[in-house]
Amino acid sequence: MSDLLEVSGLTVEFATRRGIVKAVRQVDISVAKGETLGIVGESGSGKSVTSYAVMRILDRAGRIAEGTISFAGLEVQNAPERQMVDLRGREMSMIFQNPRAALNPIRRVGEQIEDVLRQHAQAGSADARDKAIEALRQVRISRPEERYRAYPFELSGGMCQRVVIALALACRPKLLIADEPTTGLDVTTQKAVMDLIVELTRERGMSTILITHDLGLAATYCDRVVVMEKGEVVESAPAAMIFSSPQHPYTRKLMRATPRPGIALRDLLPDDRPAPPPQSAPVADAGAPLLTVSGLVKEYPREQINFISRLLRPAQAQEAPFRAVDGISFEVRRGESVGLVGESGCGKSTTSMMLMRLLDPTDGTITFDGQDIGAIPAKEFARNPLRSRIQMVFQDPTDSLNPRFTAARAIADPLMRFANHGLNLRSRIEDLAQLVGLPLDLLDRFPHQLSGGQKARVGIARAMALEPDLVVLDEPTAALDVSVQAVVLNLLADLKAKLGMSYLFVSHDLHVVRLVCDRVIVMRGGRIVEQGSAAQVLEAPKADYTRELISAAPHPPVQGS
Amino acid sequence: MSALGEGAAPVAPGRLSGLFATLGHARYVIGGNPVTGFAFGLLGLLVICAIFGPMLAPYDPLMSDTLAKLQPPSAKHWFGTDALGRDILSRVIVAARLDLTIAVASVALVFAFGGLAGIAAGFFGGWTDRIVGRIADTIMAFPLFVLAMGIVAALGNTVTNIVIATAIINFPLYARIARAEASVRREAGYVMAARLSGNSEWRIALTTIMPNILPIMMVQMSLTMGYAILNAAGLSFIGLGVRPPTPEWGIMVAEGSGSIISGEWWIALFPGVALMLAVFCFNLIGDGLRDIVDPQRRT
Question: Do B208 and A417 lie within an 8 Å CB cutoff?
């Protein structure tokens, strides 16, 4: 079988202020006809840049410095731009990470598919509509005639990604590049989308490049996997081989850091560290309930589309308000970590916001250490002394740090409001930095001068500054690379052992939850579907939904060790 | 105390390196965009004229010399003389101070009030937002220059009132930009984090939101500065505001405009060019600042 795409000695340079930066160095990749190739690597490994070079859509500062890219006999690096325009979309096309950003928000999705068909002369004005509907049908969108008229904002994330796939495949390209096609989608949606891509590519004998940071995903769907690190290919082998006997130390490190069934938290780290010490800080009456939630409800009024419909419809006939959280009850005991699991829109974030007292519940009680904090309005809670005892670690470490505060100032923020004035602020900040393993010389840097893992540490130090009793961890590792995630998860476990607080771990990743939590609560559509001990819920789930979630999560084949 | 001393030590290099990084970035941007460098040079010249104007001017700007009236540009009078024999170069230089003062004062005023109102509207929403929004709409409903004329005519013909009028007509611009930027950041993670740290809403608005939108407001300030100069000159041109014989670019253009037909072009041209360069300079700086502040919006 001849290779459809042959990349050899590819070097891509970017002109930056600090001179020329080589984002990709001497990369050799080949994709055979009908093959699915996975490019795996962490952020900054050059996997996306490689694919942009293949499509010749590098931004202005970047250029192909060396090497050849040959696609079906064409030398892509030297091809005139006009030829490339014709090639893109017709011969090779791309699926982007954020489907909503890839679609034009003010045009109907059907029209957007028609545009591509017409651009490449695949359809005339007479049959464009039918062909567009057919394209939607092929990506398993139900009621395609109706969806043809939908705007992107009317569709869910998974639907949008299907439309993007329909766009990419509309002209029957020979090569499909999928750049993190399912990041940001739920596991069940991810499974549906990936199954669809694989099925369509098989059907048409297309070649696919799947770019991902997720080894599990690559293992499940690719024939061959290329591992990239810092702009270089470190390993390339058939998928089965690479996971059963990884050769390169970096591949082994990645493999190790990927959460999967049957391992403990410590196994994620590259070095064999001893298991976390047993709870060293004495927890006062451990096991006593710290937080009790009962019958918690959050309703949002449905907004009337326009003024006229509001006038026409009498008040009684209006729809019932939307219930984001629909009467949930659970408790978190002292010194315990509880996982709150569910897909997007299940109400887990709304719940955590209400527990954090950033949002007022519609109904129900939140009892924290014997006091009903649900009754205190969110606006006044900032001045309440209880504020210091409930803290949070946010999902996105970049977004949750004020860009104009140094790391030290960010950590100091809660201390300045709550700690007594005699405190030596700087030494307390340094203690906290040491606690979370942040080098002290980084304390005077601004967030943009820190790496993702370092920012996460700053966010954790800030949450720990007031020694809270309850910390809500809102997907604390979702924005981090797996190797960084491994370190951060272990840090959180160590901190809990040292300080003896309770965690409420909000996440969509079941593998991660299993590693960190004692008990798990599964939510769907604002209700609790199942709760119980982590082992019981994840090994022997009772609810169908939990079973579906567990089976949808991809994981690399377990290592022999 | 020793712990404090040690703690304080690394702050200084951190701050300094931050400053150097900013300066380095500014130099990089200006290096890539010589027009911005030119605009900053022009600004320097304007500021020097404004500060040292009376010392730099070769003649007394108010001294009339009827023997030397209406003289074209020459080695003695580089920009020529006007109908009363006053040296136009001296008057153009000395006027820089008044025009820049009006512009800076009015922009500072509108930045303080418009910026704060906008931040409050964007951050708190609800009634605050509606009130600020309606005030801005009301001001926008008038032709702005006519509104400024009306305000100066009603309040009286003084420099202070020109400053106030210029600030009022720019209010909607500032309030709207600050509102848009604040409302984008209202739900940002770091704002929620600030709430968790026990900051009150007002404190968040002033210590978290404001510093973050300051760079964008700075760009706006520079752009409005040119407009403020133009507005002040325009008011003087039609006889409101600064009164003759005070040297001011708008008045000088007005005084010279009658003489253009009779061939004395230099009386109106040179103050007009000064005015144009000032406006030009602030607009270019605004563009340059935007590149420095937000490299992604570079065009």
Answer: no
Please tell me which residue of chain B has the smallest CA distance to A448: B18
Q: How many residues does chain A have?
A: 561
Domain A289-552 has CATH 3.40.50.300: yes
- B209, exposed or middle or buried, with CB in 10 Å at 0-12, 13-18, 19+? buried
Instruction: Characterize the bridge pairing of strands A322-333 and A289-300.
Output: antiparallel
Query: What is the CATH classification number for the domain harbouring B202?
Result: 1.10.3720.10
Q: At what angle do helices B88-124 and B159-185 cross, to 10 degrees?
A: 40
Distance of CA A256 to the CA centre of its chain: 19
Nearest chain A CA: its distance from B11 CA (Å):
6
- Closest Cα to residue A209, out of A37, A8, A7? A37
d(CA A131, CA A345): 33
CB contact under 8 Å between A401 and B190, yes or no, is: yes
B192 to A358: CB separation less than 8 angstroms, yes or no: yes
B1 at interface of A, judged by CB pairs closer than 8 A? no
B58 touches chain A (CB under 8 A): no
Which residue out of B19, B185, B197 would a mutagenesis test of the A interface target, given it has the greatest number of A Cβ atoms within 10 Å?
B197
Residue contact B10–A394, C-beta within 8 A: no
> Both B11 and B153 in a single domain?
no
Band of pLDDT at residue B139, cut at 50, 70 and 90: very high
Rounded to a whole number of angstroms, the distance from the CA of A407 to the nearest CA of chain B is 11
Distance spanning both ends of chain A, measured CA to CA: 36
Cα A509 from Cα A505, distance rounded (Å): 11
Contact: B199, A382; criterion CB under 8 Å: yes
3-state secondary structure of B90: helix
| pLDDT of amino acid A314 | 57
- Encoding tokens for residue B80? 């020529």
Both B132 and B207 in one domain: the answer is yes
Among partner residues A394, A396, A402, which is closest to B208 by beta-carbon distance?
A402
Inter-chain contact A440–B25, Cβ cutoff 8 Å? no
pTM above 0.80, yes or no: no
Instruction: Please report the DSSP string for A30-54 in residue order.
Output: EEETT-EEEEE--TTSSHHHHHHHH
Contact B285, B220 (CB under 8 A): no
Residues 495-524 on A with a CB inside 8 Å of B are none
Domain that holds residue B24: 1-32
What residues of chain B lie within 8 A of the CB of A440, using their CB?
Answer: 10
Domain count, chain B: 2
| Confidence label for B200 from pLDDT (cuts 50, 70 and 90) | confident
The values of phi and psi at residue A2, to 5°, are: -80, 155
Portion 276-305 of A in contact with B at CB < 8 A:
none
Summarize pLDDT for A303-350 with one digit per residue, the tens: 655 566 666 665 555 567 788 888 889 989 888 899 998 887 788 888
Subunit contact B14:A444, Cβ cutoff 8 A: yes
Question: What CA–CA distance (Å, rounded) separates A382 from A388?
Answer: 9
Integer Cα distance of A426 and B231 in angstroms? 50
Could you tell me if B234 and B140 lie in one domain? yes
Strand order in the sheet with A62-71: A19-32, A3-16, A62-71, A74-75
What DSSP assignment string belongs to A382-415? TTSGGGGGEEEE-S-TTTTS-TTS-HHHHHHHHH
